[in-house]
Amino acid sequence: MKWFDALNPLSSIFDMMSGARVGRSRRVAYLAAKIGLGVGLGLREARTLYFAGLLHDVGALVGPSVDSKWRDPSLVPVASAQWVRSLDLDPWTEVFVGQSWENWDGSGVPFGLRGREISLGARIVRVAREAAQEMDQAPMDAPLAERLARVREIGQRAGEVLDPDVVRVFEELLGHPEVVLDAFGPYSPFVLLSKRPVGDALMSSEDAVKLARMFGRLAGVLRGTPNHAERVAAWARRLGEEMGLSERDLHSLNIAAYYHDVGWLVGNPGGTFGGDVQEERERLHSYYTQAFLQQIPGLEGPAIWTGQHHERIDGTGYPGGLSGEMLSLPSRILQVAEFLVDQEMDVRGKEGDGVKKRLARLLHAEELAGRLDGPVCRAAMKRVSHDPGPASRDQEHFYHLLSEVSEMKKVLFATDGSEASKKAEQMVADILSKWTEAEVTVLYVSQTVPYYYEATPDLLANLSQYEESWAKQIEETVMNTFKDYKDRVRFKHLVGHPATAICDVADEENVDLIVVGTHGRGAIDRVLLGSVSHGVLNRAKHSVLVVR
């Protein structure tokens, strides 16, 4: 996949989840790139501006407090920038996104930067954002002249909220019919689907999974089961391995499993079947998932598989009533994986036989009834009989480790809020539950001066405030995870080189174990800064557990 192909359709979800009109993120991205070229920036900078515009508000969806909504709107750009940092995009994308809520007169957030203290890219995104918001205030059927009149009103904010020079370039762009029709015409959301930035780049497989995981979690949050997609993905991979899928197909199946409920985010029931809305959403969401993923080149296979994950071999499923050989093997694997996850939640804690026996009997019953695929059910029964539950290979190894080593008293858990750190977080929770006397120090280390800030000295004075905000969000999330063990957990925030600081704290506290994720940064950061986990492994005098 390419970045444009993946993020452009996904931006529709950003818009819907934030209550904006569909197409707003694409409009901001398009205008930001056009303004960038208008002020004399090159094609590479214009492409960076495009993705900054597309992702400028993603923090409202991916921040640590997404489950409980944001208490402080000023932290949205902070979370947006931190999330963008984890992707393999131009590092300047993070800077533009993190400052995109700043105002020319210093009244913006999160730092209150003023004038040219704000990077040019952020000032451009700010103007594009204001224009898109004004456009969205116009009625859907408003004439083009009325739309433009609203958009031109942003000129009144020049010198206050907006950079006057950037506004002047934007107003000149409004004299070009192509720009006007692309950005503000009645069909602009559809036109902008094809307005590809020059020099689009390929997405890494790691980032493809990261995007899928994020949207899987969003769908889970909407349904009240945040970890549902991750558990389905874990089971799907294990069953795929049992069924002999290639590594390539396993990767695609993993992505499909994360995305399988994304239709809950994009589907609009609209009274199609009548009756209860929740029931309509349940019946329609797999159809919308397939239709949505089919917009993304490279996801044609996963799109079909997700669209069939509620079908059944005997034709009693939905939405199409497909049966037998009409259902692909990956689709049948997804069906069994989701069945297992749903049944696990239902049978845990019930009296009588153990969870494994109950699951095995339920799988056998589904196979005999002809609803679920027989070979996949037998593969699942084989796994159920040997495995403690849907967990990753790393977790399985860790559970074995816990049974082999002596009890540890002091643990240092280093986190940066990334997905890898969240997996490590769960492992630390397992340590706390098994070792009742264990004490955990949770450590977040702010990089002293990230290399991409060296060219923006005006921002350095505000960097500590930026990192402090993010540290507070990480602390809130981690302490919520460990709320049952709060008397044995403390949080520490330091500034310095992460690997060195982690090892120094481990030495000072004489810990028994250091727990870290593989990494939380993008590829460029890993090349120039080095993997933190690799640095810890090379420097540490204590045992280190690296979670991937």
Automatic annotation (TrEMBL):
Family affiliation: Belongs to the universal stress protein A family.
Organism of origin: Kyrpidia tusciae (strain DSM 2912 / NBRC 15312 / T2) (Bacillus tusciae)
Superkingdom of origin organism: Bacteria
Pfam families linked to this entry: HD_5, Usp
The protein's name: Metal dependent phosphohydrolase
UspA domain sequence ranges: 408-548
Gene3D superfamilies: HUPs, Hypothetical protein af1432
An example Gene Ontology molecular-function term: hydrolase activity
Family matches, as InterPro entries: Cyclic_di-GMP/3'3'-cGAMP_PDE, HD/PDEase_dom, Rossmann-like_a/b/a_fold, Universal_stress_UspA, UspA
